[in-house]
Amino acid sequence: MTALRLHKALYPIWRNDPGWKGVFTTVNNNTIGNMFILGAAGMFLAGGILAMLIRAQLASPRSAFMGPEIYNQIFTMHGTIMMFLFAIPFFEALTVFLLPGMLGTRDLAFPRLGAYGFWCYMIGSTIMIVALLAGVAPDGGWFMYPPLSSSAYSPGINTDIWLLGISFIEISAIGAAVEVVVTVLRYRAAGMSLDRLPIFAWYMLVVAVMILTAFPPMILGSLILELERAFDMPFFQAEHGGDSLLWQHLFWLFGHPEVYIIFLPAAGVISMILPVMARTTLLGYGWVVAAAISLAVLSFGLWVHHMFTTGIPHMGLAFFSAVSTLVAVPTGVQIFAWIGTLWKGRPELHLPMLWILGFFVTFVMGGLTGVMVAMVPFDWQAHDSYFVVAHLHYVLIGGYVFPMIAAIYYWLPVLTGRKRFFRMGETGFWLVMAGFHGTFLLLHWAGLLGMRRRIDRIEEGSGWEGINLLASVSGFVLAIGFGLVVLDVAVNAFVAVRGRRNPWNAGTLEWATPIPGPAYNFASIPVVGSRYPLHDDPGLPVRVARGEGFLGEPVRKRRETLVVSVSRGEPEFIAVMPRNSIIPFAMAVVTSIMFMAPVWKWWWLMFASALGVTVLALAWAWQGGSRRDEGPLDAGRGLSLPTHTEVPYPPGWWGSLFLLLADSVLFGSLLFGYAFLWTVAPNWPPPAILEPGLAGPVLAALGVVLASGGIRLADGGIRKNRAPWTGLGASLAGLAALIAAAWTVFLATTHNAHAYDATLWVIAGYIVFHAGLAGLMTLFLTARIRAGFISARRFGDARVLRLWIDYAALAAALGLGAAWLPGWLA
């Protein structure tokens, strides 16, 4: 088949719906990625405007034009936008757009989940911006430390908007992380083993796992702080057994890994672009991968270095200071690999390379000040000063924004199909470099002179006046530079002439498709034999376009792509992808109502929207699957493969596995908080300890056995073509017993009496929710069986349910055991 005929056959299958309807129904990674990039870039502009307001306010003692209330909102929203609404969403957007092309697949693993996450992000970001314009934006700093963020000191809805809005927006991050992990592990070109992955895919795999393990503690902290504000559950009130330090532990368990969640995608971008600019291959591929993994692991042992001044025991101070210094080792490995790549190649100074050189200078300086604040004696002096503010900006702007601008310029032909013609970008670069160092190098100095962070004005005679005036002037030069970069990208995206397919002569697969890429990305799934397939096989793009790879004949008139084995990249089965749907957008809207209704205490609306989310989720899940056995199908190149509905562990099982990883980290954080309060918080032990009695443990034991045993019985019955009703009934009975066992905790405690009781209520509520969710999924599977979606060949849905029921049973055993253990010991 010729390339044109194949395109005409594939385009009607994969295209978006026409007109404005297509914006809200698309699930295509190219369209979602483009919209995501524009949305995140808009948030960067909003955060930059707020930064300029801050610098104008602090330019001199006479320049203050905002009162403390408005300034606190501006300051808080600047940090919130840059950390939550720009930094993480921007690299997620770039990943959504680029990853399928790099991996040689047609779309991400869960296109509807990607669309749902994008709309959650856009709606949540809009809510935060509207709150700012309405004067009810959060005002307690982007870290929301209790007790200042408690209802006693922040009585309005400002803090509630932050707690619930950020928790809602994080759905987007969790969903994107699940998509990325499953896509990198299973959705790749044939022959693309793990040691042939593009280096950016390795980085994003590491980052996605970090998101799944770092975000849940912050989400838990936000939810229990909101419970304290709404229902007087005293998690952070010392007089009732709480401890405000619990928030800092939960927040920084997220907050410090987040720094590396932001840095590692930038490092991945550099590792992709630098070899191309140097006209060589990456030096030390294996070492770079090992360094990325090591940095990810070490980042979870650093959170306490944000708390050196809170009274941590000296042994803890020494440990966390040492670990904070140790992160320089994997960071240094990456930097030396990049220097070695330049050394062995023949570098060309294109604009992306210019931004990478700017990164080298700035990030190394930020890293050196990072080692300084890792030293406890120095941190005690510099903590909460503008030295820390300057260090943070050196790391985040120099270490993240500069590489991301390099990425935009490098992949601009893929995004727009045009080559760069206008040359404002070079001027913008030099203005940014001069403005950035002029601003934040000076603010290091101000911090060393004692200038505190979060102040809303400069006092006469402070000694900081001249420094802040120069820093503010430099800040506006920085803003002009960024403005030129935005203008340059926009003009070149819409006005410049069309360019050739691979202008950089890169070797990775995202340059093998026409630019900009079609909705289906690849006309057929390529077969690769190296890390740089376009260098080793220049004719590969033409053969792929002619349909000479896998799935090159769209004879079944549906969206299909290839799923391969995890390690070797061998074809395993065909994944049938979903078509365009309005459900992700509708579900995002209803989910936003569910999260935001508690801000105004509209509990009826929250429960009504929760019911709406449930109905939409069931409709979403019902659309998948098949009512007939298809058997092995022709996948091209003489190979026959089953579809994803006829394999033991379908993509939904993998997605559930990693979603439950995040869920288990949230539960582990809850148990950590429970143990922390028992051992550290004042006013413990509590006045009364829960007595387990006999009924609760018996119900829990019976529930675990029936729930886990029943689903195994049902799973075996389905695979042997026998009726599964006995097993499913036993599972439902077991889940009901787990709910009853957890309910005994509610009956024996009062939610607002003591932090102990409040924590037990959250543990019991977690168990009830998951047992109830597993019960609903069991009923859903029953309906699917009756509708003909399940057979002896099509039993993957049962395996997914088994995973969720086992998790609910395990969580119940651990949670109720932790609740009853003090009573047993007493």
TrEMBL record:
Residues 14-529 form the Cytochrome oxidase subunit I profile domain. It is a multi-pass membrane protein. Keywords: Cell membrane, Copper, Electron transport, Heme, Iron, Membrane, Metal-binding, Respiratory chain, Transmembrane, Transmembrane helix, Transport. The chain crosses the membrane at residues 35-54, 74-101, 113-137, 161-187, 199-225, 259-278, 285-305, 317-339, 351-374, 394-415, 427-447, 467-491, 581-597, 603-622, 657-681, 693-713, 725-746, 758-783, 804-825. It is found in: Cell membrane. Pfam families: COX1. InterPro entries: Cyt_c_oxase-like_su1_dom (IPR023616), Cyt_c_oxase-like_su1_sf (IPR036927), Cyt_C_Oxase_1 (IPR000883), Cyt_c_Oxase_su1_BS (IPR023615), Cyt_c_oxidase_su3-like_sf (IPR035973). PANTHER family: CYTOCHROME BO(3) UBIQUINOL OXIDASE SUBUNIT 1, CYTOCHROME C OXIDASE SUBUNIT 1. It comes from Paracoccus angustae. This is Cbb3-type cytochrome c oxidase subunit I. Belongs to the heme-copper respiratory oxidase family. Its main location: membrane. It comes from the Bacteria.
